[in-house]
Specification:
458 residues; alpha+beta; UDP-n-acetylglucosamine1-carboxyvinyl-transferase, Chain; 18 strands
Length: 458
């Protein structure tokens, strides 16, 4: 069986921003819009980006660094999207910009949230401040660069800093400890921006020095150094947005836990394999997942490829593992899939969340744990994340509810399909709108894998 996934949303959004900054034409190959990205693309039109879909290509015309500056800025596209768009606008510190919404309770709350988010990432000078309307200019000064508990700059701030430095023709350098979400960095490098991005630390030691440090119990630390300097012009190139790693995780998990025939082979085409985006696949591999990359392509500045997935060998089970904050940072969107996998694993699995995300994820983890306990597995929620003790056989479990988190809903849908429940997971419409068609494809996988040959059936 072979499946093509929806394209990765985050990479597509970043590529659209990149296409605006290109002085001329960019072509996205084998293109289709990821769910929910078109409104973001439409806002980029206000900055001057033009694009047309021609067959399987999206042909884009960028404005370079002379893009337009709309005075009304979006406030309802989500944090990462808004921050990138506001960063584009922040190049001009004299123009007056406006946040506005309907002058009712909803609109007032919307503007208040946008102002709070704005002040988190930017220094601004208010011009007029009304309940449902806020006008301001961007200040020339920048907020201080803060690093998280892992020694990294948080992804949204990191992308913003690189974009801000690029459009202003300035210089910036910083060092991080690892597990950096680097899709934007590699995209900048591919399009010819003057970016240096390299690992430092381990390569400066000889093999003997490394062994001696390990023998003494010293940690051999590695750091990542990023440096960006002035780039005069960015020229257009062909680009490709590979398949969504979250959807890939759903197919791998279903093939692993559903008890389908051992001769089944599932091929996932052109999956995003960026190590900072697909870390959860590595985690599942450590738990004993049976899959491999059969076609790896290092093109367009990053890596993607085909994944072949097989059921577990007869008598084999997933094994519980302990995953650190550093490891989980490379697959945080797929956190609920690893939690589902842990319900089937032998022993104890610990999933630790990076410190900065613990408060934000606590309520969604409580809801996830409540659902997973319906299988009979032991699931504990604590400040750092989840502790799960799995079962050898899970035959029960239904009435799951994905709530308002589409990743939770998709992971629980995989569990529900594996248990052959008739009723869909509650709030599955959010899953469908976020990952169009994926639930039908997952059901198709199970149906085809378990269908008896016609001669046997007769």
């Amino acid at each position: 069986m072979e499946f093509v996934l929806n394209p990765d949303r985050e990479r597509m959004e970043l590529a659209l921003v990149m296409a605006l900054l290109v002085n001329g034409r960019t072509v996205f190959e084998d293109f289709s819009f990821a769910a929910g990205v078109e409104p973001f693309a439409e806002v980029l039109k206000e900055f001057g980006l033009n694009y047309t879909q021609q067959g399987h290509q999206l042909v884009l015309e960028g404005k370079g660094f002379q893009y337009a500056l709309p005075s009304m800025l979006p406030i309802d596209l989500g944090e990462s999207r808004c921050v990138m768009l506001w960063t584009l606008a922040s190049k001009d510190v004299e123009q007056i910009y406006t946040f506005a919404a309907e002058n009712d309770e909803t609109g007032i709350a919307q503007v208040a949230r946008a102002k709070e988010l704005l002040q988190k990432y930017f220094k601004v000078k208010p011009v007029d401040d009304e309940p449902a309307k806020f006008t301001f200019t961007f200040a020339p000064e920048e907020v201080a660069i803060k690093k998280d508990s892992l020694g990294n700059v948080a992804t949204i701030m990191r992308n913003r800093l690189l974009l801000r430095t690029l459009i202003r023709g300035e210089y910036l350098s910083f060092e991080e400890k690892g597990s950096v979400h680097d899709q934007w960095t590699k995209m900048l490098m591919y399009f010819g921006v003057n970016v240096k991005y390299e690992s430092r630390g381990m390569e400066q030691l000889t093999e003997l020095e490394r062994r001696m440090m390990i023998a003494r119990g010293q940690k051999v630390e590695r750091s990542l150094f990023t440096e960006i300097s002035e780039t005069q012009v960015i020229t257009g190139r062909d680009y490709y947005i590979p398949g969504d790693a979250t959807e890939a995780m759903a197919f791998v998990l279903l093939t692993t836990i559903a008890g389908i025939p051992k001769n089944t082979e599932v091929c996932l085409k052109n999956v995003d394999l960026n190590s900072s985006r697909a870390g959860a696949l590595t985690c599942l591999k450590r738990m004993g997942g049976n899959f491999e990359t059969v076609s790896r392509r290092e093109r367009f500045g990053d890596v993607y490829g085909d994944i072949m997935v097989y059921p577990l060998a007869s008598g084999k089970r997933l094994q519980g593992r302990r995953f650190s904050e550093d490891t989980m940072a490379t697959g945080i969107e797929e956190f609920p899939f690893l939690a589902v996998a842990a319900c089937f694993a032998e022993g104890e699995t610990i999933l630790r969340i990076p410190k900065e995300l613990r408060k934000e994820m606590r309520s969604t983890n409580e809801a996830l744990a409540e659902n997973l306990r319906k299988t009979g597995a032991e699931v504990g929620v604590y400040d750092d994340g989840l502790v799960i003790r799995g079962l050898e056989t899970i035959v029960n479990g239904s009435d799951f509810d994905g709530g308002e988190v589409p990743q939770n809903g998709l992971a629980l849908s995989v569990l529900s399909i594996a248990l052959e429940n008739d009723e869909p997971v509650a709030n599955s419409e959010l899953v469908e709108s976020t990952y169009p068609g994926v639930l039908q494809k997952l059901k198709q996988l199970l149906e085809q894998a378990t269908a008896k040959p016609e001669t046997e059936a007769s």
